[in-house]
Specification:
Elements: H1 9-18, E1 24-28, H2 35-46, E2 50-52, H3 56-59, H4 66-73, E3 78-82, H5 90-100, E4 104-109, E5 127-131, H6 137-144, H7 151-165, H8 169-172, H9 179-202, H10 207-218, H11 227-234, H12 238-250, E6 254-259, E7 273-276, H13 279-286, H14 298-316, E8 321-327, E9 333-340, E10 345-350, E11 367-371, H15 376-382
Parallel strand pairs: 1-4, 1-5, 2-3, 3-4, 6-8, 10-11
Antiparallel strand pairs: 6-7, 8-9, 9-10
Helix pairs in contact: 7-13, 9-13, 10-13, 11-12
Length: 388
């Protein structure tokens, strides 16, 4: 597949541009996930300028004064801003633009502005949040326009490829890349964006420690992660390790799964599980791009794949559900628990080739599904009541 893949968030952008609501449209996601491409296409489509807050010259236009902002609004009825988190001071300008002018604003960020701006709370009620993450299976399938009779083979090939090279748009959508070129590109994304960007934004002191922490987590995908154990193995301060992990979560590198707790004493777990938003990044950290059947971590990789796709769908559809895992003192475990705001529960057992069943483990009334490489597309697509 080559060329532009239309993102699911584009429909939300179109509705925003056509509607009367002028709340700031924040679009969050990791670097290289397609946000800049989206903005550039919009700039071309709307014939407006695109402001890049990587550039000091572009930031200077957004001083929080009526005079400065009037100059922008006189030329633009839609304002497009990329990498908004690089200029936290723009929060006040965004507030003034919403309060004082009839203008629509779409602002993207790889790190949520609230983490950097002491004034972010002043935007309360003035913004909505949306996401542009690595490509989802729904986005890929919709753009592929595969005949019904080819869908089983397409879906089989898709899950296999995404578990090896991941779903960054430039990695997946460029069919001309050889396997070594894909690996090189993933290494570049890890070094130049995932690590360097986070190090720079948060002024972290130790890039090697950041990479070592991610590598340790990459080797424990599907397992509960102990901050104390990682810190001890790396000779690091546990609070430093914990803060680095939180930064990776806030920057869409890691997905946390918290243990589900009831008031029943047989449930136990203090540690979270941590999964990667992109398996290509995970695989570059562990330096393993072998065929899945040759890999001892095959089951854990498939579990990470399912968690990623559920998280993308949850965010893309704004599903009002929370994702957990559940474990008992006896060691029996439920891979994924979905809880909605009405306290309805569904559980998902992830099976790459396992024989075990967790159907009767979860202690509350629930629906139960098994997801495997043959039915993953349907199970994920229906997980939040979404019909595909």
């Amino acid at each position: 597949m080559n060329g532009m893949i239309e993102r699911s968030v584009k429909k939300q952008i179109d509705l925003y541009l056509e509607g009367k609501d002028n709340k700031v449209f924040f679009l969050w996601g990791p670097r290289r996930s397609g946000k800049t491409t989206l903005l550039k296409e919009l700039a071309k489509e709307l014939s407006v300028k695109y402001f890049n807050f990587d550039l000091i010259s572009d930031r200077e236009f957004f001083q929080p004064t009526r005079e400065a902002l009037e100059r922008i609004v006189s030329e633009h009825d839609v304002i497009l801003i990329d990498e908004v988190q690089n200029f936290p001071e723009s929060t006040l300008a965004l507030k003034l633009l919403y309060d004082e002018f009839d203008v629509k604003i779409i602002a993207t960020g790889s790190s949520e502005l609230r983490q950097k701006s002491k004034d972010f709370d002043s935007l309360a009620g003035r913004y909505t949040e949306h996401y542009c993450l690595p490509l989802s299976i729904q986005e890929i399938s919709t753009n592929a326009d595969v005949p019904a009779y080819e869908k089983p083979s397409f879906e089989a090939k898709l899950q296999h490829e995404l578990q090896i090279y991941g779903a960054y748009p430039e990695v997946y959508a460029n069919a001309s890349l050889s396997e070594p070129e894909r690996v090189d590109l993933l290494q570049n994304i890890l070094d130049a964006y995932v690590l360097k960007d986070v190090i720079d934004i948060y002024d972290l002191k130790n890039e090697k420690l950041a990479k070592d922490i991610l590598t340790k987590i990459a080797l424990q995908v599907g397992q509960e992660v102990s901050v104390a154990e990682i810190a001890k193995s790396l000779g690091a301060n546990p609070s430093t390790v914990a803060s680095y992990i939180e930064i990776f979560i806030k920057n869409y590198i890691l997905i946390p799964l918290h243990p589900f707790k009831t008031n029943m004493r047989r449930a136990v777990s203090e540690n979270r599980k941590l999964y990667f938003y992109d398996i290509g990044i995970r695989n570059i950290l562990v330096k393993d791009f072998r065929e899945l059947d040759l890999r001892p971590d095959k089951g854990n990789v498939f579990e990470n794949f399912i968690v990623i796709e559920l998280e993308k769908l949850r965010r893309n559809t704004k599903a009002q559900q929370t994702m957990y895992f559940y474990r008992e003192y006896s060691g029996q475990e439920v891979d994924i628990v979905l809880e909605d705001y009405q306290k309805n529960y569904s559980t998902i057992e992830v099976k790459s080739n396992s024989k075990r069943s967790s159907k009767d483990v979860f202690p509350l009334p629930h629906t139960f599904s098994i997801v495997n490489p043959e039915n993953y597309f349907e199970v994920v697509g229906c997980a939040f009541g979404t019909i595909h």
